[in-house]
Every structure is written in C-alpha cells, then in structure tokens.
C-alpha cells in the first residue's frame, strides 16, 4: 500500500512537471516543444499544474490563453486542433478571447472565434470583502477591451461574430461609451456601422450619467457626433452635473461651430432653452456668460433656430439691453433678435439712460460712443416704426412651427430665398463671415 501511494504521488508530480513545461513552452511560443508534449499525451489545458496554482491562490492560465495573450497564432492553431478548451477562464474569468482582443491580435482572435469561442463572456465581479485586485471591472467583455485599446478590426470581427454591443460592465459602460470616452472616433464609427439587426444604444454610465454623445462632443469628434445623432442619441439627456451635449458644445475649449450646428439641426426634439446644472442656457453661455468668450454669431444662430432671448437676464441687464450698450460694434445678435420678434420694446421702456452697467458698458455720466449712438438710433427707428407684413408673416410662421420644428424649414418645398428669410437670413450671414475670414 505504501508503494502504491508513492507511485501515485510520483505520477502526480510527473503530471504537474509536464504540464508546467507546456505552460512554459507556451510563454515562449515554442511550437515544437508544445507539439511534442501534446503528442506525448500531456494535458492540453495544463490541468494538473493549474490546479496547484489555484490552491496556492495564484492566477493560472491555460496554454491557449497564454498564446492568445502573446499573439502566437501557430501555437493557437495547434492547441485548438488538440482540443484546447476555448472558453477556459483564469482566476478573474478572463478568457483567451479577452486577451487576444485586448492586445489587438486580430488573426489570433479570428482563429478563436472561427473555432467557436464565446465572445460574450464577462469578467468576474468583485464582491465586498473579497479579493479586489481584479484586472478589469466586472462584466468586461472582449468587445470592451478591443474598444478601449482602439483595435478597430478586432471590434468589427467581434460584432460580426455576435458580440453584444449593448452589454455594460459593472460601471454601466458599453463598448460604444468606452470608445467615445477614450476619444477613439474610428472605433465609435465602426461600431455604429457594424451593429446590424438591432439598435446600438447610447446608454448613460452609472456614476456620471454621461452618454457616448457627451464624450464625442467633449472631444470634438464631429463625424462620430453626426452618426450618433443619426442613430437617435438623446441630445437633451443631462449628465449628473446637469449638462446636455448642447451645453458641452458651447463650452469646450476648442469650440467647433459646425459641431454645434449638427447638434441643433440633426438632433431629435432639441430643446435650446434647457438649462444646465447652473441654470444657464446655451444662448446665455455664448452671450451673457462672463466665463466664456462672447460669440454673437453663435448666439444669432441659436436665436434663428428658436432659442428664447426675451427672458434672459444677466444681473441688471436683459440680453437686448446688453447688446445695445455693449462695447462691441457688431450687430449680428441684435439683428437676429429684431428679426425674430413681431414687436420690440421702445428705447424709452428699456430705460437705458438710468442703467448702471458693469465695466465696459456705458455709464450715465460717461459720454456715449459713436457706435453706441448709431446702434441706439438704428434700434429707435426700428422699434418706433410698424413692421412690414412680410416680417409679421415670418414671425407668425415661426411661432406656429415652434422651436423644435424650425429646423425643418430647410426641407420645406419653398424657394431658397424664402427658406433663408424664415431662418432670419442667418446662414447667408454666416457664409459671408466665412468668406470675409478666408474660410
């Protein structure tokens, strides 16, 4: 009996030694050694050696996982041929597909998927009081890892092989959000174009409540923004700070007017008057907000598409009062406000002479500047004289359409000149500015 026990122990030790050798050969990509060991009957999954690692509370991987991590395609093909477990998991429930996708080894990934490996396995969720040094958030799939590392071809192959592009990790992040967060525009685009058969969702993450659209706007990724809007991303969704993608678009450091125009003209039911977490609208950000550069052309564009300027106020001044008294000489926003209103308050009712403005504005005891007098005279004549029938018809049509439908003026079966007039001629004005700036 003692001899039999010794023989069993010796056999077990021999099995551990041989399976350790196949693991070490896999780490080196030593095809010949792996082949000879397999032909000698050594476990293709290194079961005996991995069992010792498991009981020692160490991580363990099969030869297939190791070869996938290092991109040893020839070895992977050999191991698959000898029946390697395609979906074998390590201590953190990471599979060979995870490892190949993370490193961007496309051919290795394709070999695994073609052999029938599951591409939707999620990694282990850490539980309170348990070992927490996990390499990935719980529920991380191969698609999450490929998207995070911008492996576009791997992303495409995974989706074509049935990867769930709407699967969230434990933080609520989908592969689409991860790609947007990492500013991988091509990766965002390939997911949107490859996701066939069902909708790819622009879901908010758990903590910040931001969507892929928020992230793409923040990074100035115009092509991705356009595609997300075509796929129905919610332009009115607020993050935890109360900001919609529209609010972010007017605040980003590298402001992109074309991107803002896309949000307004392509977004579904865009609310231009929605207030952010600080109670500020997009129009206020570009016209009344001291923290950002004044952008009258952008403000005029927002007014043309229905933003309500009449109730906006910064401390003592309404937006109209500010534009009449400001040190800036342009009138683009004044024209937009005047063209969008059926009637205007008189100069006397604005009480401009008694206003005490902040620095840069005209004070009652200061002499008026020439451009201020010109603007006031222009406005005085406009507000005192009756508006034309044509103008009143424009205001009536715009009012009947409402803010959320004004963008559809562009597709009405009307002459271009009439569509321009209904849009307050804003597009012509912007085009002339681009021409003057040599754009």
TrEMBL record:
Residues 384-428 form the SOCS box domain. Keywords: ANK repeat, Repeat. ANK repeats lie at residues 59-91, 92-124, 138-170, 208-240, 241-275. CDD domains: SOCS_ASB_like. This is Serine/threonine-protein phosphatase 6 regulatory ankyrin repeat subunit B. GO terms for biological process: intracellular signal transduction. PANTHER family: ANKYRIN REPEAT DOMAIN-CONTAINING PROTEIN 39-RELATED. It comes from Lingula anatina. The gene is LOC106157332. Pfam families: Ank_2 (PF12796), SOCS_box (PF07525).
């Amino acid at each position: 009996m003692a001899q039999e026990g010794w023989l069993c122990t010796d056999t077990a030790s021999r099995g551990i030694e041989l399976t350790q050798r196949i693991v070490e050969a896999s780490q080196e990509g030593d095809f010949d050694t792996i082949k000879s060991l397999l032909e000698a009957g050594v476990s293709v999954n290194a079961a005996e050696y991995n069992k010792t690692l498991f009981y020692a509370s160490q991580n363990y991987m099969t030869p297939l996982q190791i070869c996938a991590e290092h991109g040893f395609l020839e070895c992977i093909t050999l191991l698959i041929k000898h029946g390697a477990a395609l979906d074998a998991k390590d201590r953190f429930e990471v599979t060979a597909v995870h490892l190949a996708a993370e490193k961007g080894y496309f051919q290795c990934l394709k070999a695994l998927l073609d052999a029938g490996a599951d591409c939707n396995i999620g990694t282990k969720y850490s539980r309170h009081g348990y070992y927490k040094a996990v390499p990935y958030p719980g529920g991380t799939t191969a698609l999450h890892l490929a998207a995070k590392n911008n492996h576009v071809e791997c992303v495409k192959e995974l989706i074509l092989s049935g990867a769930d592009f709407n699967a969230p990790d434990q933080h609520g992040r989908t592969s689409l959000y991860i790609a947007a967060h990492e500013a991988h525009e091509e990766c965002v685009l390939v997911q949107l174009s490859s996701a066939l058969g069902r909708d790819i969702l622009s879901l908010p993450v758990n903590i910040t409540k931001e969507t892929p659209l928020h992230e793409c706007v923040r990074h100035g990724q115009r092509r991705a923004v356009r595609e997300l809007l075509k796929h129905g991303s919610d332009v009115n969704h607020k993050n935890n700070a109360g900001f919609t993608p529209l609010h972010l678009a007017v605040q980003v450091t590298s402001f992109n007017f074309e991107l803002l125009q896309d949000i307004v003209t392509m977004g579904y039911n865009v609310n231009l008057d929605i207030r952010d977490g600080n109670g500020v609208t997009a129009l206020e950000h570009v016209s009344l907000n001291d923290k950002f550069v004044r952008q009258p052309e952008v403000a005029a564009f927002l007014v043309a598409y229905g933003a309500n300027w009449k109730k906006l106020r910064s401390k003592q001044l309404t937006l109209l009062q500010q534009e009449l008294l400001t040190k800036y000489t342009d009138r683009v926003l004044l024209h937009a406000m005047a063209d969008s209103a059926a009637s205007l308050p008189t100069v006397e009712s604005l009480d401009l002479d008694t206003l005490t403005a902040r620095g840069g504005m005209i004070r009652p005891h200061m002499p008026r500047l020439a451009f201020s007098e010109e603007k006031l005279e222009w406005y005085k004549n406009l507000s005192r004289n009756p508006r034309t029938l044509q103008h009143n018809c424009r205001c009536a049509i715009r009012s009947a359409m409402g803010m959320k439908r004004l963008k559809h003026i562009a597709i009405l079966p009307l002459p271009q000149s009439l569509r321009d007039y209904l849009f307050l001629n804003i597009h012509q004005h912007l085009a002339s500015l681009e021409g003057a700036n040599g754009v």
